[in-house]
Structures are given as structure tokens and as C-alpha cells.
Design goal:
alpha+beta, four-stranded mixed sheet, 14% strand, extended
């Protein structure tokens, strides 16, 4: 009987961990600026992780505003304190935190989250 109870508990914890993991992954917002609704934004078009921090903050805030406007719940999507991953037009990316959604520069990049654009590989020879 003790073995059966242990198996039942293991199954329960497995499902709890699976649910929590799935929820965390599903909650991650990724804004790909190559999407047509983002790639023509003035603050996004020429931005990469190599751009100055203020330029990246303006671009991320502009992309977040478009994301909010196109979501089904614009007043509850990307609230202050939430984070999202932004992929810049060159393929570089970083994680950004919403600081103030009412500000034009209401985002802040999380230090150490920047990833350079992948190096293009040459095609078949």
C-alpha cells in the first residue's frame, strides 16, 4: 500500500510540474519585428542590440504599444513589470521589461539578455 501511495504522489507532482511549466512557456510574449505590423515602425526599422540603449527602449516601447493595440485585451496585455522578448530586424534579440506603458520610452532592457544576430551560413557549394 505504501508503494501505491508513492506512485500516486509522483503522478500528481508530475502533472503539477507539467502544468506550471506549460503555463510559464505559454505566458512568454515574443515580438518579432519582421512581422509586417512592426517592421515599418520608425523606432524599430534600424534598431538592433548594438543600438544605444535609449534607441532600443523607444523601439521596444513602440512595438509593445502596437502589440497591446492588436491584442484582444489592450489594457491588460503587457502591464508594468511584465517582460517580453523582442527580435530586432537584424535577428538580434533581447528581453525587455515594461516600466511605464504610458511613456514613449517605458521599457528597459534586462541586462545580459541581449543576443547578437545569428551569423549567416553559406549555402550549399
Amino acid at each position: 500500500m505504501n508503494g501505491t501511495r508513492l506512485v500516486q504522489r509522483a503522478k500528481l507532482w508530475f502533472w503539477i510540474l507539467l502544468f506550471v511549466s506549460y503555463t510559464a512557456m505559454a505566458a512568454t510574449v515574443v515580438i518579432d519585428t519582421l512581422n509586417p505590423k512592426y517592421h515599418r515602425l520608425t523606432q524599430v526599422a534600424v534598431t538592433s542590440v548594438d543600438s544605444p540603449e535609449q534607441v532600443r527602449a523607444l523601439g521596444a516601447a513602440q512595438a509593445a504599444a502596437v502589440y497591446r493595440a492588436s491584442s484582444g485585451a489592450p489594457f491588460s496585455s503587457l502591464p508594468p513589470g511584465s517582460t517580453f522578448r523582442i527580435v530586432w530586424p537584424d535577428g538580434s534579440s533581447e528581453t525587455v521589461m515594461i516600466v511605464n506603458p504610458a511613456s514613449s520610452a517605458g521599457t528597459r532592457a534586462l541586462k545580459g539578455s541581449q543576443q547578437l544576430a545569428p551569423v549567416p551560413t553559406s549555402g550549399p557549394r
